[in-house]
Amino acid sequence: MPDRSDGGASGDWAQLRDRRMSEPGAEQAYEAARLAFELGAAVRRLREDRGWTQKQLAQSAAMTQSAVARLEAGGTTPTLPVLNRIAQALDADLAVRITPRSDVA
Q1: Looking at residue 19, what is its pLDDT?
Q2: Residue 88 to residues 19, 21, 47, 61, Cα–Cα distance (Å)
Q3: CATH, domain 26-98, list 1.10.260.40, 1.10.760.10, 3.10.129.10, 3.40.50.10420
């Protein structure tokens, strides 16, 4: 087993991650990616609960199957009109909220 005490591969990754996260805008980009992933996962769960394929959702929401796949993978952030079409296709309500953080006075 390699000795990682000399800053081997795992040390290099940790240093790279720390360096990248300290760059301007990195935290915001990470948060946007997290939100896109969670949104995609929610759409996928609703679609699967309905027993639909990506193609069926795409047809019902006037989209392409590849657009549904990208959304579900967190690779894109759809516009509100697209989200509304997806919600309608899935017989779901679209709720967009901005809520105060608990640490804000």
Answers
A1: 86
A2: 43, 38, 12, 8
A3: 1.10.260.40
